[in-house]
């Protein structure tokens, strides 16, 4: 599933590609992608004749801005956008097509069909589902160490599932949570309220630095993710913990081990990220992967998704 850096990469690409383009017609080929309005024909009718004015983002949601409307789009597992000329053949799994008046088209493809689109008048989207309950935006200026500590509050939940909770902080998924916790030296099973102020501040800095660096690299290409222009992100080459089971930690050389936290595959260095009392029993040490195996699996685009 694309996380904040991947969605941000798509946003930037779309912002360049669609701004100023006017929609002539919209074809909805798979109605269930359209969540609001209920009727896909009404969705198409509302959009026809409108011009895209830019692309914004809230958490992992794209906010495609038009004159007088906002299209909120969630890519979920496999959704992706591409710009095409109208004479190019429509590929399989293309579910929504925005035909522009200049002979090009924005096509939305989604093999898994989990993606969603909602149409709102501007402003209404931020106070309605699915955006209403979203938490702190980690790349905003307002996301200060104080704001992060306030978002964690006095919660006693384990820190990893808490960081994955989009109502607390948006945009983080399994990859960047593992990376940020590793960079901050915080074990994912620590209960949030047991973190010292210094640890919370380190974690705040690690979240911001990890996401910034990933956005700069154009996101990660784990599995089949590609950005709006079909280029692969490069951040997977910088991963320090995620997907590196059995490889040495870049900080101390201990092998990265994989366990399960809150049902999610989790990668830690047990020397840099000291486990809380009692968690060791739950940490399953995996056999060392054959050299190069992990990298190959990530790059060939066919590896199984890491849950
Ligand atoms: Zn280490």
TrEMBL record:
Q: Which NCBIfam families match?
A: fpg, PRK01103.1
The similarity annotation says:
Belongs to the FPG family.
Which GO molecular function terms does the record list? 8-oxo-7,8-dihydroguanine DNA N-glycosylase activity; class I DNA-(apurinic or apyrimidinic site) endonuclease activity; damaged DNA binding; double-stranded DNA binding; zinc ion binding
Query: What ranges does the record give for the region Disordered, renumbered to this chain?
Result: 273-307
Cofactor remark from the record: Binds 1 zinc ion per subunit.
The protein's Enzyme Commission number: 3.2.2.23, 4.2.99.18
Q: How does it assemble?
A: Monomer.
Record protein name field: Formamidopyrimidine-DNA glycosylase
Q: Which organism is it from?
A: Cohnella zeiphila
Give the protein's cofactors.
Zn(2+)
Q: What does this protein do?
A: Involved in base excision repair of DNA damaged by oxidation or by mutagenic agents. Acts as DNA glycosylase that recognizes and removes damaged bases. Has a preference for oxidized purines, such as 7,8-dihydro-8-oxoguanine (8-oxoG). Has AP (apurinic/apyrimidinic) lyase activity and introduces nicks in the DNA strand. Cleaves the DNA backbone by beta-delta elimination to generate a single-strand break at the site of the removed base with both 3'- and 5'-phosphates.
> Is the Isomerase keyword given for this protein?
no
Q: Which residues form the FPG-type domain?
A: 240-274
Which Gene3D superfamilies has this protein been placed in? 1.10.8.50, MutM-like, N-terminal
Residues holding DNA? 93, 112, 155
Q: Which GO terms describe its biological process?
A: base-excision repair
> Which transformation does this protein catalyse, written as a reaction?
2'-deoxyribonucleotide-(2'-deoxyribose 5'-phosphate)-2'-deoxyribonucleotide-DNA = a 3'-end 2'-deoxyribonucleotide-(2,3-dehydro-2,3-deoxyribose 5'-phosphate)-DNA + a 5'-end 5'-phospho-2'-deoxyribonucleoside-DNA + H(+); Hydrolysis of DNA containing ring-opened 7-methylguanine residues, releasing 2,6-diamino-4-hydroxy-5-(N-methyl)formamidopyrimidine
Q: Where is the active site?
A: 2-3, 60, 264
Residues covered by the Formamidopyrimidine-DNA glycosylase catalytic domain: 2-115
